Amino acid sequence: MTPVAGVLLAVIVIFGATGLATLTLLSARSAQPLVLALMAFLAMMGTFFLFGLAAGHIRLKERLGSSELLRSALDTADHGVLISSRDGRPLFANREFRELLGLDSDGSLRTLEEALAGEPFAAECLFRLMRAVERGEMRAEEFRFRDGDARARTTRWLRLSVRPLLSSSSAAEIQGLVTWQLTDITRERAREAEAVRDLETALANYESLSVGVLSVDPEGRISHLNQTLAKWLGIEFGAARDRALKIDDLVVGSAEALLRSSLHRSKGEPVRLHLDLVREDGVGIPVEALAAYVTEGASSGEISLIVLPATRATPAAQGAIEGGQNFARLFQSSPFGIATIAEDGRILNANAAFARMFPEPGQVEANNIQALVATTANHEAGATLEAALAEARAGRISLAPVEVSFGPESEFTRRLYVSPIAPGEGLSETVIIYSIDATEQKALEAKFAQSQKMEAVGKLAGGIAHDFNNVLTAIIGFSDLLLQTHRPTDAAYADMLKIKTEANRAARLVRQLLAFSRRQTLKPEVLDLGEVLTELSAMLNKLLGEKVDLKIITGRDLWFVKADKTQLEQVVMNLAVNARDAMPEGGKLAVRARNISERDSLKLRDQTVIPGEYVLIEVEDNGTGMTPEVMAKIFEPFFSTKDVGKGTGLGLSTVYGIVKQTGGYVFPTSMPGKGTTFRVYLPRHIPEAKTETQSIKEPKKEQSRDLTGTGRVLLVEDEDSVRSFAVRALKRQGYEVIEATNGAEALEIVESDQGKIDLLVSDVVMPEMDGPTMYRELRKTRPDLKVIFMSGYPDDRIKIDDAEEAHFAFLQKPFTLPQLAEKVKEEIAVGA
């Protein structure tokens, strides 16, 4: 209503109220004319009000409902909105929602299930959204939607999201509703597809660039190289990351140290370097490289290189350019360190090898040589170097090197040769230093001393083992004889059985000594380590217990190895048990196997590994770890970190002996508190025939058999106890036995026997004449005589001329009575 109409209406109301009050004071007769006049006036005012209202001069204010206001606002939104119940029954949908899904195309508001029934993927998305509704969660899905008939069908990408309807009202009908929001993302999807196509095009152009591109991460690993560079190097595209190649694997010299020291010298600015790349076949490629940090400065540590073939100039300038480039390449790729020193001791130039030989390559440019050595070596070495520098500045040449050692355990050794530089115009260098990394030589010297020590201990252990085997043969043999003459119910039977059990236990310890001394008998066969470890997993789980989480991981297409399966399993079990003991509260143990190429084996040259192809077994735990002092003794026999009586100290020495006798290598790495890793390298074996790769069948369980026999046996043994047991054992089985104490006596018996001896059973090591010598003499007159050699050493120590024609059997000491009887009966039966 306008302000004028409001005033007019107020006047009318006032006049009306005044008139009514006056009429109450007057009589009915006198009030009649006034009433008529008032009514006429009010009628006239009402008529004017109606005309003003019709003409629009008077307007009544309308009150718009909140629901209508919300509906109008939602209909103008640029995305679809639907309000439904939890079971999907639609209650309200704005115009955009109805147009996108056509929910009211037939005049009624359809459910989402009906609208999306023709789109399988969209129906799956709707199912996941409905599950989210049941859980009261928010969720969004994207799907393709096609509408229209078959002749004019359009396809769009839609994003549908759902959330519970949030309201301050506590009404149940409000709390049980959900809000759906629908957005057309067709253009967004089209832009993404276009961006992907542009990226693919850019990557294709990047990979096919005429220059090589290489990225090196902060650890020196190659994170990426483009297809062009991979082709130059002969590397399969994408294999650099899979093989975990480092920049030092592709560049002659210490490439990582060279890059970082050069960038440090240039204060992060790109630098140009002359390098020699190494192709997969070992051929060198001279190149120029532009190196720079990926981000500004060295904060990320990631380096990018653009690699170009070495530049070519005109013939006139070619010689000078090549001379400078060749010098730069030789200087940087030199295997020994080179540095030039100013008068005040500052390092003016240093190649990559020199930078690598010190703990902090960046310090080479920042410090002078005295400060650098002082921070890494002892005071005595620094003083010696200072004296050598003074001599060189005076022009005197000293041939004696300065040796400095540094590191927490002085484990790094550098040998420095100091020489003067002839003065020249414009030269600020006065001294040149050549640095050689002598760490490997020192380590080899220590390893050689250790190997000599181990060899001496091994010979001692082997000799002791031989004598022990003779003693144990007698103990076990006489125990068998006594057990045969007593019943299990006899009081002494249990004691005799205990004696034999302990003797067998001692025999196992002797076998471990022989394994350490590499004098045990091995039965090598072609093995697939993946199958061996898989078969061993059940036994390992029992040994380790529930507290240790065992994981066995084997690489694909593992190469074959040739080894004694039983002994190899013993190696893995010993390492696993040691790892278990290092994790008393439980932990994780990983046993891995993978192939090692010849190129990868070159990285192990400092550990005296012969280059070749190997199969690696890694046994890694996260236990207590070992100190360097313990690490230096772990392979020594009888050394143990366990309490007295809780270990023989032969576990790792056995591992060492078996691996060495198989032709492999074993190296431990450990850090206190972080665990230990043992790496066993076994040589690859290439089978000569398919039959060699066939798995060995499990031996059938032997049934009890008759061990008695007949025949005349000549027994030659210098140990009285062993000879006495063997004679009694064979006579008990029905044989006629003749005794001899050495080879010479045996030859006399055979000569006088005139061919009546059926079998010769002889020890190998005897005084005066050993077994093989005796056998060689016997072959001259009795080439058909059957022979069984007995020894505490393995059979490979038996050296006989014409070994291919010679036929003999072997019986390892200590042996039991049944084993002796079975071997004798088996040999007499041959050719009978």
What can you tell me about this protein's structure?
The chain is built from 28 helices and 27 strands. The protein has 832 residues and is of the alpha+beta class. The strands form six sheets. It has a five-stranded antiparallel beta sheet with strand order 2-1-5-4-3, with helices on both faces. The protein has a five-stranded antiparallel beta sheet with strand order 7-6-10-9-8. A hairpin with an 8-residue loop joins strand 14 and strand 15 (429-437). Helix 1 runs antiparallel to helix 2 (28-55), helix 19 (493-516) crosses helix 24 (651-661) and helix 20 (529-544) runs parallel beside helix 21 (565-581). The longest helix has 46 residues, at 439-484.
Count every helix, treating DSSP H or I runs of 4 or more residues as helices: 28
Largest sheet: 5 strands, antiparallel
Q: How much is the radius of gyration in Å?
A: 48 Å
Average pLDDT metric = 75
Summarize the amount of helix as a percent range. 40-55%
Strand order of the largest sheet: 2-1-5-4-3
- The residue ranges in which pLDDT falls below 50 over 5 or more consecutive positions are 23-28, 313-321, 361-366, 693-703
Number of strands: 27
So what's the overall shape? flat
Estimate what percentage of residues fall within beta strands.
15-25%
**Which structural category do the helix and sheet elements fall into?**
alpha+beta
Separation of termini? 138 Å
